[in-house]
Structure formats: structure tokens, C-alpha cells
Q: What sequence folds into this?
């Protein structure tokens, strides 16, 4: 294995790790929004507010355009699910780049 292919392989591995981390951020953000919506956690708590704001700032730039494209499903927001599926597609693509 030469230096170029090793560097490329390491870079693709890092991209996969970041995408996996972002999937977990989306899941935690969606769960947090449900907990706030059902009044299980209180956003008046400073820590809860900081965590919620952090997750919102990480996920909203990619979820907002999806919400505009997806049809209105009443109170059901499918944008996190669609974004996770898009990320999984990108992960599969990156994996196949590394194999080939």
C-alpha cells in the first residue's frame, strides 16, 4: 500500500466516523425535541437549554431544507429519518470508494 492510498483510506474512514457521529446527533436531537414537546424535560433548566440549543444548531441547517421539500404530515416530522437515510447512502458510497 502506497502513501496515497493509505491517506485516502484514512480520510474515508474519518468521513465515515463523522457521518456516524452526525447520525447519533440527529437521533439525540429528535429525542430531545420529543422530551421537550411532551414536557418531560424543562427548557428553563440551563443545562437542558444549552444541550437543546447545541443540538438544534448542529442539525437544523440540514433539516430545514428537507422540511421545505417534504409534504406536511401534520405533527409528524419525517425530516430526521430522511436525513439519516441520505447519510447512510453517503456512507455506503464512501465505503465503496474505499473498497474499489
A:
Amino acid at each position: 500500500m502506497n502513501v496515497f492510498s493509505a491517506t485516502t483510506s484514512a480520510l474515508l474512514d474519518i468521513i465515515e466516523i463523522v457521518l456516524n457521529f452526525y447520525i447519533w446527533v440527529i437521533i439525540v436531537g429528535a429525542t430531545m425535541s420529543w422530551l421537550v414537546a411532551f414536557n418531560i424535560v424543562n427548557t428553563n433548566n440551563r443545562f437542558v437549554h444549552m444541550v437543546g440549543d447545541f443540538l438544534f444548531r448542529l442539525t437544523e441547517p440540514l433539516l430545514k431544507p428537507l422540511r421545505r421539500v417534504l409534504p406536511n404530515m401534520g405533527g409528524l416530522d419525517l425530516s430526521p429519518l430522511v436525513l439519516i437515510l441520505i447519510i447512510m447512502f453517503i456512507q455506503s458510497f464512501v465505503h465503496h470508494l474505499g473498497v474499489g
